[in-house]
Amino acid sequence: MFRIGVACVVLSVISGGAMAEAPAERGGYLVNTIMACGNCHTPRDTDGKTIPEKAFSGGMIFTTPAFIATAPNITPDVETGIGSWSDAEIKRALVQGMRPDHGRLAGAPLAAIMPANFYKALLPDDLDAIVAYLHTIKPIRNEVADPVYKAPARRDPYPDAEAGFSKTMFVEPVGRGAYLVTIGHCMECHSAWSRGVSDFKNGLGRGGRIFPAPDGSPGSIAANITSDPTAGIGGWTDREIARAVTEGIGRDGRKLRPPMAYGFYAGLKQADLADIIAWLRTVPPLQ
Ligand code: HEC
Ligand code: HEC
Question: Are residues 199 and 209 in contact, defined by beta-carbon separation less than 8 angstroms?
Fold first, then answer.
């Protein structure tokens, strides 16, 4: 903390006080907090903790009826990562879920577990910032297994991402919160889910989706996070919601389980967390 403070003073002297956030810094903030890319793309140790020295070098394996896919190496390593991709190609993967027309599985769509249907909401500045940050990651050589597709890729359109965002919508906390919740794909996990399809229209935030643990144990069930006072979190204080999101502690003090990215959300700025909570308060109650 102290060191960061000193660096800020020095920088603000150099830049005459006007200190705009550098794009890579903004990108790093998004990637390592609300978007939690490393929750999927970083390998884990035997305790299930992400390994910082191997950040973004490829990680989780997802086995579903539609595909078996490993979160790829997204470090700038030229051979095993995305070091040979142009910025436009990286952006296309992020917001359209499409691979480049060269290299591994050229031109093939990415499995829907990569949340491109939410990332399409990214404002152009934020998309640029994320790409700028990805260029700063340490290249790591690590080859991941090719995916196996058993059904065509299908992405459930998320209404707020389809409608899009603009900076004028960020005047109100609820507008800023809606954007963060969208790029954080919170409602992908927390909405009603049946036969592999999200029901954002009738089941937004209702919970119930089951996440099996990687070791085969029962895993977790996504909670109802609508504003319903009993079934949802309508009766929780802001402090209780903030604690659940950033510390992974339930209202009753229970330790919440994966796959929610509590450790990443811990780095959220207080103001962003407040905006997210403001938006959650607007989710219509559902039993
Ligand atoms: C829920 C898990 C998950 C999250 C969160 C996630 N990804 Fe992915 N991502 C995947 C998976 C799985 C694939 C590969 C899908 C396939 O092989 O069909 C992928 C593919 C990619 C690819 C294509 C790489 C390649 O070699 O084909 C890029 C680039 C990428 N992700 C970047 C990101 C970034 C940047 C973020 C955060 C802003 C992110 N991902 C968040 C799971 C995730
Ligand atoms: C990858 C799936 C996933 C994502 C993404 C996700 N969550 Fe969760 N969340 C869960 C699961 C599963 C639980 C329940 C964990 C348990 O009961 O042990 C949970 C629990 C919660 C809780 C506690 C509710 C309760 O009744 O205990 C809150 C609040 C919450 N999530 C909010 C959010 C917000 C806000 C976001 C986005 C910033 C988010 N979640 C993103 C899966 C997810």
Answer: no
Q: Outline where the chain has alpha helix (H).
A: 2-14, 23-32, 37-41, 87-96, 116-119, 124-136, 159-163, 173-183, 186-190, 200-203, 238-247, 262-265, 270-280
263 alpha carbon – ligand 1 mean position (Å): 19
List, in order, residues 6 or more apart from 242 with CB less than 8 Å away.
273, 277
Residue ranges in the chain whose pLDDT is less than 50: 1-18
Strand pairing of 220-221 and 210-211? antiparallel
Output the residue whose Cα is nearest ligand 1's atom 9.
Answer: 114
Residue 21, pLDDT score: 86
pLDDT in tens, 44-75: 999 889 999 999 999 899 998 899 999 999 99
* Cβ pair 155, 116 in contact under 8 A: yes
Tokens of 214: 């990687």
Q: Which ligand is nearest to the CA of 208?
A: 2
Ligand 1 centroid–CA 58 distance in Å is 9
CA distance 31 to 26: 9
Distance from residue 113's CA to the centre of ligand 1 (Å): 8
